[in-house]
């Protein structure tokens, strides 16, 4: 943020300066539907619906002289303490002792619990106007009048206003009463200054400065610049009149049409006034009678307020009836001509969707904060009552999220096991007075309570009352209670890998059962990682490769919506290098979200069980290591998963180790591209090689050998490797003689004879 004054030279001094100019540094902006926008945090807070809470969306009958001008007073937690206008002061849907308000000012320092409510109003008896001060105490959460005084101020019955200036270093403030005339003395238009002391008492008028021109009648709301040096208002002929609070001089400014907002900001020692008109925003420097139109700021029918971040806030929109009519925008007053407004919140619709004019319904003097602590927390992101406690399942963490504001160096909690009537359970869990240091993250695992308390809480079902209490710097205690119900639940993954078989049909890696299960189907993994032959061998195009249900039983879990899936399950296969740990691809090569996994779930389409992968099965290659991951998202235990590794040892070039990596019965030879197939040695005394070239990867190739009587002695289907292929067939156990072979590959079919000697 840029300097707002010559005195503002550092961030530290800027913070001090801003803290001393409460009037023009509003924190909350009233939105539609009982919402307020916090200009400090950039968040929207919804207040209880009328009449349970004061209304904030009053209708403005006229722009420059509204009958309703709500002023809300909020705590540091964002809850509304009370709100008022020039006719009413409201709390919980009703008036507070017929009080009304044109300005609200906190008394004392940061631990204040009292507010001065300043109001200027018509006195029907004497047909004049006057100004008084009422003191409200909000320490109990209910604004209660404790004292009051009437200023010796008398003004015109129709043309008057009162404003409150920023706090002085000694805690005092100045109150300014502006009127067209004093009917008792028949004076000219005047401004009177009164002192509002830090203890709530008031002084008689410090001065009464008269304007020598009787036509300079106030005809709008008044505003005080953020440094307290000037008061500004519009007079009957449209001129913006400014009043120097030190020299008591009246200085006319530019003449304008009806305006909707006015704000004075000290920029490098000069007060600049920003004015919102029917369709544009203009500004002028103090003492000037001409205005400059702000760029990119058209369509503003709204009051203006200087926020604590040094930005100007306005509801930027058009004069409409019904529907979204304006957006809350900010502009930087330090930029010449202002920059394009930035959106802060959308659709500021006042008065139940019907608004002719938009107003800053946090007041110019107006919206203040109570520096009290706000204690709040959730457990596992939820809330619970005695009747409907938040369920905590033992398979998850018990995370307490601290929402206390302002953030404390430590929090204190107590946990008591209770029955359905909120009475402590005899012999039950009772843990109190534990102070938790601030971790900086705001999250605390209740399973890690000191001693055996965390373990006990994490394993014993029941209803527990958790109370958090904190004390603010003013010695005020705040607390919050949540109810949780601990439910015992286990959730782990249990599945069984099924791999290719050897020639005898015996599964090589039977695996073992682990203490894991998922939902109502159970799966058993074998030892991992499986990275050495001959653990899983055979050709995946012939045998089933996949997972099937395990044998462990357990409590059925409730499926939740798995991220990015239509079912609670996810099965994926990840490709690794031969070391079994280094990823070879950044994304899974196979991924499915089946509705259930009750039958074999295969990675290839060569068998008929349900839920197999119908594409990409050929991406499972020889000598790679693959990781199968089965996961589920359950309501009770969140996302749970387990994994197992497998490796195919069935031929083909190694991907990353520079050698063949295959068992001894495999040998690769180069075959000239011009030759379709090479069978050698022929004749043979032991084994014969079938070698050929292929342009395909993962396609089926079949070698069949029959004797002279047509009896099958060898039949094998295997996956081709792009380039050279060589299959060694062992004929050592067959009788000598002539045999007929058929070799079917992606290139075609070859028949011939081989002689066994």
UniProtKB/TrEMBL annotation:
The keyword Flavoprotein does not apply. It holds the Pfam family Por_Secre_tail. Transmembrane segments: none annotated. The keyword Ribosomal protein does not apply. Residues 679-751 form the Secretion system C-terminal sorting domain. Residues 1-24 form the signal peptide. Keywords: Signal. This is Secretion system C-terminal sorting domain-containing protein.
């Amino acid at each position: 943020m840029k300097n707002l004054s010559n005195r503002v030279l550092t961030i530290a001094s800027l913070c001090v300066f801003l803290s001393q100019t409460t009037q023009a540094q509003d924190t909350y902006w009233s939105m539609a539907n009982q919402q307020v926008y916090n200009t400090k945090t950039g968040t929207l807070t919804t207040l209880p619906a009328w009449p349970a809470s004061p209304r904030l969306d009053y209708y403005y009958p006229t722009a420059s002289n509204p009958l309703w001008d709500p002023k809300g007073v909020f705590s540091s937690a964002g809850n509304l303490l009370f709100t008022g206008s020039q006719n009413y002061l409201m709390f919980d849907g009703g008036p507070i002792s017929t009080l009304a308000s044109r300005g609200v000012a906190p008394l004392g320092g940061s631990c204040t619990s009292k507010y001065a409510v300043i109001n200027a109003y018509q006195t029907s008896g004497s047909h004049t106007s006057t100004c008084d001060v009422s003191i409200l105490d909000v320490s109990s959460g209910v604004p209660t009048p404790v004292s009051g005084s009437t200023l010796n101020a008398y003004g015109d019955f129709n043309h008057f206003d009162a404003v409150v200036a920023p706090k002085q270093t000694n805690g005092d403030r100045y109150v300014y009463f502006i009127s067209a005339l004093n009917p008792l003395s028949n004076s000219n238009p005047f401004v009177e200054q009164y002192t509002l002391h830090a203890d709530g008492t008031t002084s008689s008028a410090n001065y009464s400065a008269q304007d020598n021109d009787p036509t300079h009648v106030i005809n709008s709301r008044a505003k005080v610049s953020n440094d307290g040096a000037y008061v500004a208002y519009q007079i009957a002929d449209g001129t913006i009149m400014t009043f120097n609070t030190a020299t008591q001089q009246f200085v006319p400014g530019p003449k304008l049409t009806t305006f909707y907002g006015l704000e004075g900001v000290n920029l490098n020692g000069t007060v600049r006034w920003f004015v919102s008109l029917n369709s544009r925003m203009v500004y002028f420097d103090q003492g000037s009678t001409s205005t400059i139109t702000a760029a990119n700021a058209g369509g503003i029918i709204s009051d203006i307020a200087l926020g604590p971040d040094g930005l100007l806030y306005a509801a930027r929109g058009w004069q409409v009836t019904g529907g979204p009519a304006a957006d809350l925008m900010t502009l930087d007053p330090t930029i010449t001509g202002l920059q394009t407004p930035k959106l802060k919140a959308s659709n500021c619709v006042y008065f139940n969707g019907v608004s002719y004019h938009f107003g800053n319904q946090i007041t110019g003097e107006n919206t203040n904060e109570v520096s009290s602590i706000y204690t709040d927390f959730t457990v596992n992101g939820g809330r619970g009552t005695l009747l409907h406690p938040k369920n905590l399942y033992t398979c998850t963490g018990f995370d307490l999220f601290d929402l206390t504001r302002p953030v404390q160096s430590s929090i204190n909690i107590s946990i008591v096991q209770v029955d359905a009537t909120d009475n402590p359970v005899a012999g039950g869990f009772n843990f109190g007075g534990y102070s938790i240091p601030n971790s900086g993250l705001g999250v605390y695992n209740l399973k890690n309570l000191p001693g055996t308390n965390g373990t006990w809480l994490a394993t014993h079902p029941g209803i527990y009352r958790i109370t958090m209490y904190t004390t603010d710097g003013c010695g005020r205690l705040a607390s919050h209670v949540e109810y949780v119900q601990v439910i015992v639940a286990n959730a782990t993954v249990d599945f069984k890998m099924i791999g290719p078989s050897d020639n005898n049909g015996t599964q090589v890696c039977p695996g073992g059962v682990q203490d894991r299960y998922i939902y109502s189907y159970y799966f058993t993994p074998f030892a991992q990682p499986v990275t050495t032959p001959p653990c899983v061998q055979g050709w995946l195009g012939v045998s089933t490769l996949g997972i099937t249900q395990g044998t462990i039983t357990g409590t059925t879990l409730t499926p939740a919506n798995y991220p990015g899936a239509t079912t609670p399950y996810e099965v994926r296969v990840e490709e690794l290098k031969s070391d079994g740990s280094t990823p070879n691809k950044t994304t899974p090569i196979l991924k499915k979200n089946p509705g259930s996994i009750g039958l074999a779930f295969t990675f290839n389409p060569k068998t008929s069980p349900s839920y197999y992968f119908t594409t990409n099965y050929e991406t499972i290659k020889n000598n790679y290591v693959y990781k199968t991951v089965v996961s589920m998202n359950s309501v009770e235990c969140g996302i749970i998963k387990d994994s197992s590794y497998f490796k195919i040892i069935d031929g083909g070039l190694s991907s990353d180790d520079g050698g063949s990596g295959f068992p001894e019965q495999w040998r690769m030879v180069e075959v000239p591209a011009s030759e379709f197939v090479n069978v050698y040695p022929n004749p043979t005394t032991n084994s014969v090689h079938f070698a050929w070239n292929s342009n395909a990867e993962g396609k089926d190739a079949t070698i069949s050998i029959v004797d002279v009587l047509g009896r099958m002695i060898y039949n094998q289907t295997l996956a081709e490797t792009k380039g050279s292929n060589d299959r060694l067939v062992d004929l050592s156990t067959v009788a000598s003689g002539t045999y007929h072979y058929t070799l079917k590959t992606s290139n075609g079919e070859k028949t011939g004879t081989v002689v066994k000697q």
